[in-house]
């Protein structure tokens, strides 16, 4: 373990230590390939660097347009006094990024809204934060407990497409608990619930020990060096194969949240992933917390079934671009035409203009939601204009092909259908669904773990 007896300037050194002989990669990689990339905005982080006199960088885990993420060893950890985690994940924001500071403030609010409830543990929240000085400015940093990959990667690489029924039940219950806490205790709408934002916990501390040991054994870590000497490292996000199913999940990413205000409905169309977008968002009928429930219903469906209920191929126009008309046609194919009440809401809001034009996916500045999504979608009699896009014979029950016992199947379908209602106010709340009989066998943590072990 490295000593921390150095000055702050030495600890935040920007040049690689002499003891490393790095592999070089040809051509720009990772964040340097993004269209918005500017070298001076990113901190020149490297393995073995010590941040904030406390965290020694082990390996790069990932990157985005506004940050890089690193696994680090916590130099304050003591084996005999484990009051702090041995390893952490450090998210290093680009220079002077105010959104990271805003995210930290929101996370502080979430963590302290109702700590006695225990629900905050279901959310991915930082355990520390600091500002890191770099050669071109200051970089806000958030520190987290390490997690494994996201649910989508797990589904793809570990179990094929679907998740086992017992694991689906356990993860769904935790996801509902997280959203219940956000809505009821924090007054926050997530708006971006998807598999990529559901992170799985490390099932055994030895996983991290072995990963770090392997990185140290390998020595050189691949990187690309630009002509000006800036190094960009290759990410290593996978901690190795899962050793058991004894893990949990946390909901992450709160940078797209909206305040939940009683009686207030939003019209902004740029929320939610395409596949999981709620109908009221597409229709401009006004949305609030129930859009999160629509998201959860579709995410949990995919956990069990292994595929999206609303298939991506049927959400596109002839040119392969996302189409709100095609998306609505899929929803109608499963659940019939929307109630007259929802169509009337759309018609009432159709001409409400945004203060500033919003650029739609085709690059056109739009003033209304209908213009943004290519509406209107219904004629004056309430009929869907593009009837040719409706696929006959589809149903929720007929699309569930995963083999479940009759009672379990009925409970699962009832759970999902309670979240996929046309009228937002008719959708079950997360708090209500925590008492749904589908979860009866796992709501006690001990019985849930026993059921998981019996099915492992």
From TrEMBL:
InterPro entries (UniProt xref): CLK_kinases, Kinase-like_dom_sf, Prot_kinase_dom, Ser/Thr_kinase_AS
Cellular component, GO, one term: nucleus
Keyword Transferase on entry: yes
Coiled-coil positions: none
Keywords: ATP-binding, Kinase, Nucleotide-binding, Serine/threonine-protein kinase, Transferase
Name this protein carries in UniProt: Protein kinase domain-containing protein
GO biological process assignments: regulation of RNA splicing
Highest taxon listed in the record's lineage: Eukaryota
One Pfam family from the record: Pkinase
Domain Protein kinase: 55-439
GO molecular function, one term: protein serine/threonine kinase activity
């Amino acid at each position: 373990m490295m000593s921390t007896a150095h000055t702050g300037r030495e600890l935040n050194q920007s040049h690689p230590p002499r003891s490393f002989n790095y592999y070089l990669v040809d051509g720009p990689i990772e964040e340097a390939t993004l269209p918005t990339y500017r070298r001076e905005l990113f901190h020149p982080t490297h393995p073995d660097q010590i941040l904030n006199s406390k965290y020694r960088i082990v390996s790069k885990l990932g990157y985005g347009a506004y940050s890089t993420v690193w696994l680090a060893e916590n130099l304050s950890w003591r084996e005999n006094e484990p009051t702090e985690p041995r390893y952490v994940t450090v998210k290093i924001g680009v220079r002077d990024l105010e959104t990271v500071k805003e995210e930290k403030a929101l996370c502080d609010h979430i963590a302290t809204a109702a700590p006695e409830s225990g629900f905050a543990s279901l959310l991915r929240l930082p355990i520390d934060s600091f500002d890191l000085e770099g050669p071109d400015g200051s970089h806000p940093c958030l520190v987290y407990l390490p997690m494994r990959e996201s649910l989508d990667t797990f589904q793809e690489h570990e179990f094929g497409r679907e998740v086992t029924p017992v694991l689906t039940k356990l993860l769904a219950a935790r996801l509902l608990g997280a959203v219940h806490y956000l809505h009821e205790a924090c007054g926050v709408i997530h708006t971006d619930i998807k598999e990529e934002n559901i992170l799985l916990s490390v099932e055994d501390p030895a996983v991290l020990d072995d990963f770090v040991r392997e990185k140290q054994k390998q020595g050189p870590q691949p990187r690309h060096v630009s002509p000006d000497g800036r190094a960009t490292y290759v990410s290593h996000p996978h901690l190795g194969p899962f050793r058991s199913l004894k893990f949990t999940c946390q909901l992450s990413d709160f940078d797209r949240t909206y305040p939940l205000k009683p009686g207030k409905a939003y019209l902004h169309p740029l929320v939610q992933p395409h596949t999981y977008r709620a109908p009221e968002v597409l229709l401009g009928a006004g949305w609030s917390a129930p859009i999160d429930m629509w998201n959860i219903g579709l995410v949990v469906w995919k956990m069990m079934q292994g595929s999206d209920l609303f298939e991506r191929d049927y959400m596109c126009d002839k040119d392969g671009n996302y189409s709100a008309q095609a998306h609505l046609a899929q929803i109608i194919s499963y659940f019939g035409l929307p109630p007259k009440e929802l169509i009337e809401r759309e018609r009432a809001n159709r001409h409400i203009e945004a203060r500033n034009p919003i650029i739609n996916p085709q690059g056109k500045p739009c003033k209304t939601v209908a213009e943004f999504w290519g509406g209107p979608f219904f004629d004056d009699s309430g009929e869907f204009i593009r009837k040719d896009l409706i696929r006959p014979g589809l149903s929720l029950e007929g699309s569930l092909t995963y083999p479940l016992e009759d009672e379990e199947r009925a409970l699962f379908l009832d759970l999902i259908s309670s979240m996929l209602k046309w009228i937002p106010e008719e959708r079950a709340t997360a708090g209500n669904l925590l008492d749904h009989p589908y979860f009866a066998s796992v709501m006690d943590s001990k019985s849930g773990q026993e059921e998981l072990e019996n099915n492992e």
